[in-house]
Every structure is written in structure tokens, then in C-alpha cells.
Amino acid sequence: MLLTLSDVEVAYGAVTALRGVSLEIAEGEIVTLLGANGAGKTTTLRTISGLLRPRSGEVRLDGRPLSSIPAHGLVGAGVSHVPEGRRVFPSMSVRENLLMGAYHDRRHARADLERVVALFPRLAERIGQAGGTLSGGEQQMLAIGRALMSRPRLILLDEPSMGLAPMVVQTIFQVIAEINREGVAVLLVEQNAASALRIAGRGYVLETGRVVLADTAAGLLADDRVRQAYLGEDVADREDEPAPTRGGAAAGPAHGTAIRADSA
Amino acid sequence: MGFLDQFWQLTIDGLMVGSLYAVIALGYTLVYGVLQLINFAHSEVFMLGSFGGLFAARGLLPDDGSVPGGLASVGLVAVGLGAGAICGGLAAFTLERVAYRPLRRRSAPRLAYLISAIGASLFAVNLAGKEFGRQNVSLPDLFHNGTVFSFFGADVSTQSLVIFAVAVAMLIGLDRLVAGTRLGQGIRAVAQDADTAVLMGVNVERIIIVTFVIGGLLAGAGGFLYAMTFNASYSMGFVPGVKAFTAAVLGGIGNVRGAMLGGLLLGLVESYGGYLFQASYKDVIAFLVLVAILMIRPSGLLGERLGRAA
Amino acid sequence: MRRRPLLGAIALATAVTLTAAACGSDSDGGSSADGKKTITIGFQGVLSGDNQQLGLNALYGVRTAIAEVNADTSSPFQLKLVESDDGGSPDQGPTAAQKLIDDSKVVAVVGPMFSGATKASEPAYTQAGLLSVSPSATNPALTTLGFKTFYRVIAPDTVQGKAAADYVATVLQAKKVYSLDDKSEYGTGLSGALEPELKAKGVDVTHDGINPTKDYTSEATKIIAAAPDVLYYSGYYAELALLSKALKDKGFTGKIASGDGSLDPQYVAQAGAAAAEGTYLTCPCGDANTDPKAASFVASFKKVNKDAKPGTYSGEAYDATLALADVFKKLGTDVSRESVAGAFGSVNFQGITKTVAFESNGEVKGSNVFVYQVKNGAIAVLGNTADLIKS
Question: Can you tell me the ipTM of this complex?
């Protein structure tokens, strides 16, 4: 296994955010993480990339415990994290932002820069412009491009489609698929569950800090609870009909709160 | 004698003092950039560097009180700058380790840093007073100080030329460092977004300590230059420290080029103001300018970002 | 309100500590081991800060006098000293004075030293009825402010200013003088005495003031632009040193002169020999080191103070202390604040700097003003102004 989380608990002070999360990612696969706001998706990614340390449980990369690697050493170990909200360096130019991706190892920077710019032609046009002046979609491309500059084996993507126009979202997902085809494993956190499940091989559903479902993408797409909560469909309706009201009586009482919160 | 007759002379004086303010201001601005923390003990780093440079240069001077010349002078100035920088760097390193890092480990509130800085500052001042005496200590001439050239009736002395040239060289060097090196990239990344910088593989702890040390090297070398004209004393740090802080705010705290611009501008304003009005009003004029500029541009002349400088 | 007891405890502990510190020197009784009575006097002066050397000069003078009295087997009492530092500043003066006033054993004080600190401290001394004898506060106004227990063993700046003006105009033959003071009580008092006398002699005077600072570059530019024959600085040595440095750096060709506040070897040390060379310094004080009558004082001073040489105000402080001892001797068993303050005005004691005797306003009778000059990196006495002008 490339990455394994076993029974990970994470707390912010007195507030527990993850209550025993276990998940796995193999080389070269796309895994998606679904869940409502506050379910612990971002916390999971931040724990994997070492920004948060688990209170108990273990994160292993290639079977090696991550606690032995400092947070800033993770990118060298092959994990690249595209954080929520893109987080491009606002006062650096596009070029400088991309080079930051190669900060830990500059040997291939020049060649990789050309490769990334070829992947995102829009970035080539804006190469000298400050990161903060780009549009949301361009910033997302920049953030992903920056992550690619580190030649990752695993890329963590946190809400890459958030706040973007549908056209741009499409491009982003195409790029993710393309990156994966080159052999990079992807852990994808997405609000847009339909698109995520379309490109993912497997997925996990998080609720209030626990994994409540784990299945193949096809299995999740077929699951009633997932369809209702994350794909916005009434269970009784067929796929081609527009989704009417959400979270009716069909929602199981055990999951009701989380599901309603998410679809609101 | 009117102001216009003396304009160029005052400009030269102002640039000389202003370049020193700028060198010290960089320490404030760099640390603010990466930590959003005003390092109020920076003035003492400057003071300790000043003594380090002064004693090193004085130790190598001939005993007979003669003024050296030629290569000996160049060597002595270089030794003084080097020793000042090293002492300043060491002081800044120690300061960060002792006064700030333990607080950072405990995620202490902002106010705790301020109190820690004041404590460190008082300690350093009194230690220096005890070790070096509470008198002003002067640096004997390291070279023959005369007029190098004149223009528009203003004389440029060897000393002011040396101070200005070295200070400007340091400013340019730092600017290049921040804009064009991997270290500078790391510093700017931490300043703009520390969490994301970690994700890029930037060792934030290392960048913080290096930032303190760079600020200390500059302040220490600046302290040596300052002692050439203004003598050194245990209490010397406070006023230039406040001025340099002002310069940093004036230019936009966190902004490297802003600090440089702010320092030079403050030096000029003081010089002109000190001549036009009573010299004692110099500080008042300097701070009035600060208030006026901040009323129009609250984030300083060049804005607040460390990265924007490059 | 969980924190109340802790806060209270801290406040209490602080209060106790402060009280203990304030009364720290209160422990021993009224008589020493050999049965002699112990009389305690205070010293208030500048024992820290930029101009600390002047304070040390005076303090060492006091210590020398005390050591002599205590070594004298015929003396009916032993002297004990309590020191109080006012940093030379008016702000700290009242606190420093209060420390001595609160110590009930202190019957008289040598000090304060600087004019500003003196002006700020004297109201407290007057109110407490505690005698204070300044070795060095020369501001002319000090004896006109109703300070009932204030005396000084040095001539006021009216005397020094007038003599300095005569010297600058007659001997240095200045046509144009730039008079710069440090805006302190002392500095303005001296420049205020100097300037009218210069004008009376037909000299063109430019007045300027600058608070103590480190950066005298623009002031130097201003002075050079005015092109005076003589710059007279009324202030202290730490600042004159920096000013001289700045003036030399800019190639000032006129002469530099200053008063007693700058008369200290530290001036030369801090300005650098080259920048200080040739500077004239006036002082209503003689130089004990070169005065044959003071030879035994110099020897005893060196013995008491680890080979330090007497400096400016050392002799005055020594004389003030011995004059006090003289009064104590005459008072016999009745030594109290009240009796000392009452008797001191009529003292007549032959000191090494002058005969210590006072006018009714507390001003010392008769005084000479001397001129010194920095020559080859050392301060040398040129002589008494009256003699220098005549010759």
C-alpha cells in the first residue's frame, strides 16, 4: 500500500475531529473522500500531509510511519497537497509559484516547468503575473501545477472544483484524470460527488469523523444513501429526473442530521 | 545661510543616517514578514553588534594612536563589519531561541511575545551596561577622514561615503537574496502563507531562525557603522531602534524595499527638518511625517507584503 | 474570582520587596564598635547614564573625605554614607531625594549634582528640613527659588558665564560666537549668563539649543553654515564629544569651547583625541591634580578609590563633606537634621578648592574661574581667567 491510515484520531484542542479513521490508497489509483462540511475530510488531508499530528492511530507511507517525517519533508517523500482554496502565493508570479513546487528539489525544475505549462496553456500566458491576480480557475490550475512540480506519487486534492464555473470544473477533472494516467495516485476530496465518483476507482464516506461507507465508485454510485445525500437525488426518482426536495422521510434517522446539513 | 544653500549637504547627511535606519529596519520587516511579530528587542541586537565590531576593530588598531591608512584601513573596516555582523547574528539567534521559540512552541498569545521582547531588551541593555560600562565608548579613526569630493558646495567625507556605500551594498545584497535565491523564495513563501509553504517542503522553523540571523547580521554590521560616527553605548539601541521601526512601518512593514525606502526617507526628513526648525524637533518632524503618511496610506508607502518587493 | 488570592499575593510580595529595598540600609544602630557615634550622610548624584563619570568624580571625593574622617582617631564620630542615584535627570531627582529623606538617620546630603535634578529635588529637601550641599549645580536661579536648606560650594554660572565670555572675547578675540545649549537647567543657565556678556563686548552672538541626542550631523551643518569664530557649548561631555566628532567630520575650522559640564577626560576619550584637540573648557573649579596645595588630597583620593585620579567636582565634593564634618564637630552631641541645617550657613572651613563660607542666600563666597584646553589628547589647565585676560 502506498498510504495507509489506521484508526487515526485527531483533535483540535478539546474538539475531536477524526474518531478512528482507517483508509488505504494503492499506487496509481484515484480515491475520493465524500462527506458533509465538518465531517473531517480536510482534517484527514491535513493529517496525511503532516500539518496535523494524530492523537492516536498511525499514518504510514510505503509502510513507514509518517511520524518519523517532519511535515516539510513529506513533499520529498512523494506526497503533494493541493489545499482547499488553492492557496497560491499571492505576491509571487505564476512562474515563482510553480517553482515553489520544486523547492525541495530543483534538479528537474526547468523541464517540469515546461511540462506543467504545456498541461495548462493558460498559465503560460500569465507566467509573469502575480498569483493573487489570477481568476479562481487559473489559481486552481496553478495550485495543481505547483503540486505537479514536485513529481509526486500521491497528490491530495482538496475541493478542486469549489467556486468554479462548470466549464472550468470540466477542465480540472480532465487534468486530474490525465495526471492519474501518468501513474500518480490521487486522493480527491470533492463536494461535486458525481464528477468525483466518475473518475475515481474507490471512495470513502466520512461522517462526523468516522468512515461510514467504503466501496468502489460503482458501489457508492449505487448506494441509496450516497445518491440521496451527495448526488442530490430522491431515492424514489430515476436519474434522468431533476432532483426535487432533499432529505425527506427516506433518510435514515441515524444519518439524518449530517445528510441534511450537507445538502443544504 | 538659507536652506537652499545647504540643501545638498543636508541631503548627503540624511542619506547617510537614512541608509543606517534602512539597514536596521530590514530586521524588523523580515521578522514581521515571517512571524507577524514586531521584534522589539532588535534594537539591542544592533547595540550588541555595534560593541562587537567596535572592540574587534579597536583591538587591531596600533597602540600609538596613529591613524592607519590604505589597505590597513580597508582591513580594519572589514573586520569591524564582520565582527559586528557576527555578534549581531549571534545575538539574534540567541534571542529567537531564548525569548521567542519557547513561546511559539506553546502557541502563546501575541502579548506574551511583546513582554518577552521587553524582558530580553532590558536584560541585554543592563548586561551591556555592566560589561562595557555605562559611558559612551568611542571608536578611534580607522582611516584618514577628509573630503572625498564636493558637489554643489556640499562636502562628502570619507566616513559618510564609507557608511553609505556599505549600507547600500547590504541593502542591495539583501534585496537580491530575497528576490533571487532559494532561501529568499522560502522566506517569501513563509511570509505569504506559512502552512502552504510547509506543503512545498519549506522548513518553517529553519526559515524563522535564518530570518532572525539575517536581520541580526545586518543590524550588527549597521551598528558598527553607526559607532563610527555616533559612538557606542549600552543604551544606544533605543532611539535608532524606534527610528528604524518607524522606517519599516513607513515603507510598509513586511516589505523589504519599503523598509529601505522608509529608512532613506526618514533620514532625509530628519536632516531637512533638523535644519529648518530647531534640531531638537527632528524627532517630532519625523513622527509627524509618519502619522501623516499612515493617515493617507495605512499600510505604508509600498504596502505590507514581503513578497511584493520582488 | 478564582484569581483574586494569587493577584493579592503577588501584590503583597511586591510591596514587601519594595519596602525591604527602600529600607535596606537601615539595619545598624547609632554607634560603632569602638564606641564612637556614627553620623550618616547621604549622597545624591548622577551614578548612571551617559554622564555618569561626573557623578563618580564627586562620589569618590565624598568617599575620600569620609575615609579621612574615619581614619582620624581624634574625630569624635564615624561617618557613614548612603548613596542615591538620580541619573542626572529631573524626573528621577525627587525619588532619589525621597530615598534619603525617608532614611531617618541621614542628617545631611552632599548633592544633588546636576542643576535640573537639583531644581526638581530641592522642594522635597526644603520640606523635610534636610540640608543639601551641591558640589556642582551651577544654574544661577537655584538660590533664588526659596530652597531653605540648599547650599552649593561652586560658583553659579553667572560667574562662569561672565568669565568665559570675557575670555572668548578678549583672549580668543572672537567676533562671532555660536552659543549652543542643551536646553537643560544647567545649559540654559550658562548660555543665559554667557550671551549678554558677549553682546556687551560687541560680539555677534547666534543662540541655538538642542536636546541631548546622538546625531549632531545636521546641527554641525548648521553651525558651519553660520561660520562662527568660536562655538560655545553649554552642556555635558557625552554630547559635546559627539558634536565635536560631527564638526570635525565636516571640517569645522572655528574654535570649540565649553563649560564645567564638559570638563572631563571622558570628553577626549569619547570624541577621539583628534576631534577634541584644542577645545577650550572653562570651570569655576581648579585642577586638584596640578595644585600643590591639594597634593595630600590627591594622594588620599587615589588610595581610597583604587588609583582613580580626582576629576571635575571631586575637590568640591570633598570640601563639602569635610565642611559638614566640621559642623558636626562643632555641634557635638546635638547632631540632628534641624541643628545641622541651622548651623551650616555660618560655616567657615578652609577647603582645597576654596574657603567654604556662604552668603545668606546659600551662594559660596568668592570663586575663581579657570580655563583648560585639550592639548595632545589631555586636558591641561591654562590658568585663572582673570590672569589670562590681563596678560
Answer: 0.84
